[in-house]
Every structure is written in structure tokens, then in C-alpha cells.
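User: Predict structure, ligand FE2/S2 (inorganic) cluster.
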Amino acid sequence: MTGIPASLGLPRKPPGTARQGLGATGRLDDWALAPAVQAILFTVCATYLFVSGILFTPLLGTPYEVDGYLSPLFSPLFRPDWLPTWISPGLFILWVPLGFRATCYYYRKAYYRFYFADPPGCAVGEPSLHKRYAMETRFPFILQNLHRLFLYLAFIPLFFLWIDAGVSVVHDGQVRLGLGGAILFVNAFLLTGYSLSCHSLRHIVGGQLDCFSCSRRTRVRYTLWQRLTSLNLHHMAWAWASLIVVTLADVYIRLLAIGAIADPAIRF
Ligand code: FES
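Assistant: Predicted complex:
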């Protein structure tokens, strides 16, 4: 968060080198393609996950667990007896991954571009209504600073996702190697990669150190920081892969639950 003294008010956004006016640019490449594809993908996945996590079961009665497979949107499952049937148990957990993703540094860059055109791309002009530049110092965008808190919280459902994947391997007293279990493992793996590649985590581990080699503790932190940095280089890929797979995992379990598909599995 940057500190702009209140007495100075908000500065005019510096014109920079981009041409003025929405979409004005000297770029010759197809700069709008990536934000357009990302906007479609993000909107489809986010809308589906919201509807599935909050509305599907109360409105349509569609189960979110079947044959030992639990949709990742409901893990850890908290379903007290007093919960009315018109309230989805997903409400208790979804705010954590939702807050984590919404405040993610990578997703901010992406949706600032494709939703707010602020800016639509590097060296591309913005709408004139963006002349006043509050950055993330005012509501609602000041809430982006909660990202580190959501990072800590995100490890709780992640822990349970690994347990769910492991538990799904044993069903009806048999070992079951099924496609559903494989999807749950891949989902937990990708979400772990996404969480560990977080910019904020990298800073927690290796930031605010003047010397990496001065003590055993700082050397350990440096080693960890190097590992996280190698993951962080691919944070965008982790973000998209984990978003797509968590969406597909829920779709798969919902289809299984309504009997639309069968789960190919080896049992012994
Ligand atoms: S920066 Fe993307 S999850 Fe933290």
C-alpha cells in the first residue's frame, strides 16, 4: 500500500508514454487477444464456481459428494444439523479461496486489464474516467491488502483437499484407483503449486533480510526463497491451471452424483 498524504488529495494520473484514449496504442502486435481470452475463461470459471458452490444444491438439490468423492468447493465439509437446506455448506468455506484469488497479485493485473481497462495493456491508452488515480488506497480496492491474510487461511482448505484425495482411494473396503481420485490429487497438487508460488509467500520467506549468508537461519530462508522463486516464475500458469482444474473437478463430481457419467476405476 502506498501512502498518499490525505492533505495532498489524489494526484492526477501521470500521462506516461501511452497514447491517450481507450485502446489507443502504437503497438503492432495483437495485444487484445490475451486479455479477451482470459476474460472469457475467468468469467466462465468464476461464475460457474459461484453458482455451483452457493446455488446448485439449495435450488436444484444436486449432490456435491458421491461414492467417497467430495467436491473441492465444499472441503472441509461443515454441515451442522441446524443448517437449513436452502443454505449451501459451501458458504462456510468458499470465501477463503475466493478472497485468495480475488486479491492475488497476478489476477489483479489480469482483471484490472480485462474488466476495468486500467490499463487494457502495456502502452495502451485507457478511458478518460481513470484520470484520478487512487491506486489501492481507497475502498474497495484497499481490501486487496488482505492478500497475506487470505494466504494464511488458504492453507487450511488445501490441507483438507489432500486428505479428501487420499481418503477417496479407499472405498467400500477396497482400494480404488479411479479417475475421480486422480482429478482430486491433480487439483490438490495444482492448488499447492498456486499457493506456494504466491508473491506474498515469497516475500514472507525471503523478504526484509539484509544478508542471506550471515547465519544458519538466514541461509535456510535463502534456500527456501530460491525454491519458492522457481515456483513463482510460473505463478500465472499455476493460477490458470488450478482454476480450470478445480472447476472441472466440481463438474466431474456433480455429473457422477446425478448419474450422467460413471467413474472408471480399478479396484482391488
Ligand atoms: S500473488 Fe497470486 S496467490 Fe499470492
